[in-house]
Specification:
By secondary structure, this protein is an alpha+beta fold. It has helices spanning 26-42, 87-99, 156-165, 168-174, and strands spanning 11-20, 46-66, 69-86, 103-110, 124-131, 134-142, 150-151.
Length: 176
């Protein structure tokens, strides 16, 4: 007889991201996402977090074969679900996703429980000053926050070019 303390379950944290068919409406996409969460629970997994599916343009055209016909997608409902589950059960979840004709693409990856949020980098505007067809100075304006504008070099010739590229409220800060 085995002791209860000796039984270990190989439970890991995973994230499934998916793109649903763009012919669905928002309600149907949300129901399909909830159905995936239900499948996770049925397979013994536990829900951690999610992002509800929302319509977005895809980076490139995707093709899915449905009933021996190539169906092209330029947009779809994108969402993700983070969950904890035994490693062997994940293959069963993937099998269901693969057979669903309304799932254009999906990806299941192993991840960490902690919240890992992607944040965009602040834009950097580069302006070149052309005097007598020569590049004299380069200005890097780092807009990391709304209040802080950092300029490396701002001669008077460049201030005119910056005024054309950057809004007035930022230009006055740069030329000080």
């Amino acid at each position: 007889m085995t002791d209860i303390n000796e039984i270990t379950v190989d439970s890991r944290v995973y994230e499934v991201s998916f793109i649903f068919d763009n012919k669905l409406d928002e309600g149907a996409a949300l129901e399909k996402s909830n159905a995936i969460k239900q499948s996770i629970a049925t397979l013994g997994g536990s829900f951690i977090s999610e992002e509800a599916p929302y319509m977005r343009e895809l980076a490139y055209e995707m093709i899915r074969v449905v009933n021996n016909i190539n169906v092209r997608f330029n947009e779809g409902y994108f969402g993700w679900i983070k969950f904890e589950m035994e490693g062997e059960k994940v293959k069963e979840l993937e099998k269901g996703l693969k057979l669903d004709v309304e799932v254009v693409r999906y990806l299941v990856v192993r991840t960490v429980r902690e919240n890992t949020v992607y944040t965009k980098r602040a834009p950097v505007i580069k302006v070149e000053s052309l005097v007598n067809n020569e590049t004299d100075d380069v200005v890097n304006i780092d807009t990391t926050s709304d209040d802080d504008i950092i300029a490396d070099v701002v001669p008077e010739e460049v201030a005119e070019i910056v005024a054309e590229v950057v809004p007035d409220e930022i230009t006055s800060e740069v030329t000080k």
